[in-house]
Amino acid sequence: MMKENSNEEPNGHVQRGLKARHVSMIALGGCIGTGLFVASGSAISQAGPGGALTAYILMGLMVYFLMTSLGEMATNMPISGSFAAYSAKYVDPALGFAMGWNYWFNWAITVAVDISTAALVMKFWLPNVPAWIWSAIALILIFLINAMSVSTFGETEFWMSAIKVVTIIVFLAIGALTIFGIMGGHFIGMRNFSIKQAPFVGGFPAILSVFVVAGFSFQGTELVGITAGESQDPQHSVPKAINEVFWRIILFYILTIFVIAAIIPYTSHSLLGSSATDIAISPFTLVFQRAGLAAAASVMNAVILTSVISSANSGMYASTRMLYSLSNSGYAPKKLGQTAENGIPYYSLLVTTVVSLLTFISSIAGPQIYMWLVAASGLTGFIAWFGIAISHYRFRRAFIKQGHDLSELKYHAKLFPFGPVLCLILCILVIVGQNPTAFMNFDWKQILVTYISVPLVLILYIAYKLKNHTKIIPLEKIDVSPSHKDEDLSKLNKG
Questions:
Q1: Is residue 487 in some structural domain?
Q2: Single GO molecular-function term (predicted)?
């Protein structure tokens, strides 16, 4: 039975079924995927070991500041689909509209990409089975997990993320033994950090290109803001998740890049060919094989399959909750804000599933359409980060301007305003640096394919602003009061 959202429970009528351990692992697992397991090799080949490490360290720091910004807002106002609400409440309702639909679109398309990738991964074992069968199975499985309850989703993500974490720990242990010659037969040491042009290859342009790759790898950390609305104790679990995730990400990513770079020279053709679906030349597979583990390819294929399903599962959850939040905010049809007895917004879930299915079908029926859809979602993650940073900057300024004391906040973002300002600058740098050669060569098709998500967001923002005559909210009029339920932000739409 479907119900309209009410104020009977905190956060409308979705249920706070996510435990602290769920929130921590979801935030961690959200940014550990094929970007680390497979594509990390291409980062080392482009910029060398030193360049890759520099890019990932800088991106890791930026993500940490972004997470603390999100944490300060999420503990003050923990709601599902938080990005749209924060942008609308602290900046401009038109920005909330644009950010919300941008983020929903991003994850709805990502689900379709992931179920397509799952089929390609399955071909490693069963090459003769039609790919669409595996994609259909993956989509049904993800739909059922998200349809049961938020605790079912949380528990599933916990264990899938745990598999990824255990894999990385085993990889680091075996990698260390291989570097010192205990496994693999001979001592390697740091020799690959000094061959040819190493450790830095290609200078700053190469580091910038890896910075872009690293940014995509870290996307998903912002899921902690989505889960806050259904966390049992967001004031405790969100700060805990942010602090834990930062150190785990830095340790996992930096140590992983270090181990790969130490064992496999940046000149290796295998690293140059790294791609999201070529399991045989995954850096993890290569390192395991170098250590003498014959079954490395099959093991890593299973881990990567888990990672892809986990990404699609998180994507379905994030996009469903964003659509639910958009409905509560008056940005989407009211029916999408209805929930069932178990707190699941089924209409939002069904719409997201249909869009993901249609996008997947377009990959078969119209590859050109599919390519444009994927391209349109390419930069949306960075645009969402930009929205989080600017929302927090204005939230904190309004908080102080209105005479509040920082002691009133449950969680304090670190080094304000350095954190959000750094995030804003680096997000712009990454967005502009996606494909600079296209501008230099005046390749308009490539420019459009690469940057199409930017004008789409601007169109959403400007169209909503013109239609509803909204204005940027003055700092003294921003509502910074704490809230523990979904806000109906439609009252802001009149500007």
A1: no
A2: amino acid transmembrane transporter activity
Q: What are phi and psi of 18, to 5 degrees?
A: -90, 125
- Find the CATH number of the domain harbouring 320: 1.20.1740.10
Residue type, 60: G
Q: What is the pLDDT of residue 281?
A: 63
Q: How far is CA 182 from the centre of its chain?
A: 37
Domain that holds residue 194: 2-478
CA distance 76 to 378: 30
Q: How confident is the model at residue 488 (pLDDT cuts 50, 70, 90)?
A: very low
CA distance 142 to 140: 6
Quote the pLDDT of residue 464. Answer: 95
Of the given ranges (66-75, 129-138, 145-154, 358-367), which has the lowest mean pLDDT? 358-367
E-strand spans in 184-319?
none
At residue 339, φ and ψ (nearest 5 deg) are -125, 160
* Residue 38: inside a domain: yes
b/e code 44-82 from CB counts within 10 Å (16+ = b):
bbbbbbbbbbbbbebbbbbbbbbbbbbbbbbbbbbbbbb
Domain count, the chain: 1
Query: Which of 227, 250, 190 shows the shortest CA–CA distance to 71?
Result: 227
Per-residue pLDDT of 44-87, as tens digits, reads: 888 899 999 998 888 888 888 988 898 899 888 877 667 788 99
Q: Does residue 386 form part of some domain?
A: yes
Judged by phi (left if over 0) then psi (alpha if -120 to 50, else beta), residue 145 lies in alpha
Q: What is the pLDDT of residue 144?
A: 94
Runs of H (alpha helix) within 92-183: 93-122, 131-148, 150-179
CA angle 371–224–374, rounded 5-degree value: 0
- Contact criterion met (CB below 8 Å) for 467 and 64: no
| Tokens standing for residue 460 | 């959403």
pLDDT digits (tens, 9 = 90+) for 221-231: 777 777 766 77
460's CB contacts (< 8 A; 6+ apart) are 97, 98, 101, 102
Q: How many CB atoms are located within 10 Å of the residue 455 CB?
A: 11
pLDDT at 276: 47
Residue 430 in this model has a pLDDT that exceeds 70: yes
Query: What is the structure's pLDDT at 27?
Result: 67
DSSP state of 491: G
In contact, 344 and 5? CB cutoff 8 Å? no
238's enclosing H/E stretch is helix 234-263
Position 183 in a domain: yes
Region 130-158: mean pLDDT is 89
